Amino acid sequence: MTRFIGGFAAVLILYFIYGFYVSQQDLSVVPEKFQKDTKGGYYDYRGVLNVHTSLGRGSATPQAVINVARNANLDFLIVTDLNQFSGQDNFDGYHGPLLVMQEAEYSYLDSRVFLLTANEGGSPSNMGESSVLIADYLSQSNSKERSQFVGFLHTSNPDYGWTGTLPQGMDGLEIINSRSIAYAAWAESKISVITSLLIYPFNPLYSFLRLYREPERELALWDEVSRDRPLFGFAGAEASARAIPLANYLVKFPSYRSAFSISSNHVLLSSELTGNFKKDQSKLMSALKKGQFYFAIDLLGDPQGFFAEIRSGNKRLPLGSEVRLTKGLTIYAELATEPKYFYEIVLLKDGQRSVTSNSTSLTAEIREPGTYRLIVRVSPLLPIPDGKKWITWIFANPFFIKP
Question: Are 363 and 332 in contact (CB under 8 A)?
Fold first, then answer.
């Protein structure tokens, strides 16, 4: 027994020594920003969606979640409680500097659909109405004719998978989902997940980062559909901090704060938000609908200031633009800050690597029609035992170049 106690004490001491080592690691690939960058004339607004409160399956009240989002320095928060119907308390509006939109996630067939309406046309009052409404939106051959944004959530989750081809009326696809990443990591290596849980008290962000897997299935589906029609990708926080009873202590894992730090969406606007909720809500809705945003793994640092555009003569067109191929058409992308580790900006054509830059900007002349999207990859040095690892940091929505 004495030998067992001594061995256990030694393991515990080593655990806390390693925990101290891990807690000192700064994994950000760029310096912390103290002032927002405005690059290329774009205003970069950072926000999260796929967020759940106690009105649905979350563990905190809407106001508590809003307070966490404010402390996380988000610019906008889109709450999507499951199957929320008209008659619920509405907390749309500005909460300090944070713009909050109360939207919803709905069960539809065997899938989960994110519906962003900004209260245009009213909210469904029951499950039947929501199914009819979503079916109508998804059947539309040209989703540009409506202002609502319909997105497919939990893309690779077998419990909510979509059977067959994606409907023409779908606007977006959830590429990053924290829960899906955790499930994929668990399927690949349960020991790695357990190790991350042990690391979590010392460095929560690193514990998630080491579990990160490239969303290959989601990206393949996105690229496949985008060859034929516009489809925009986004990151879902999947934030619920679902409470786990542990004796008399209530553990919330992962916390809302941690969930808001994993990934986010960055909307690029040509003018600033004004503080007028209705006008600013309309700006955000329009930008999301048009694909004028990118999403990023924030665990690696703040990408704010990144931008990409199409240039043709004096014309400059933002992310998500659809244009005809003309002579002298170029795609330009720029990082706000040079990363501290190895990095590359990659232009993909129809999902395949086309042009690579190892500087803070990329310029590519476009000579062929196709769907072009940009990614930024970095190779941070993770603490022992992980070492260097290439990770996609920034995912930009595509440009659609037509013949």
Answer: yes
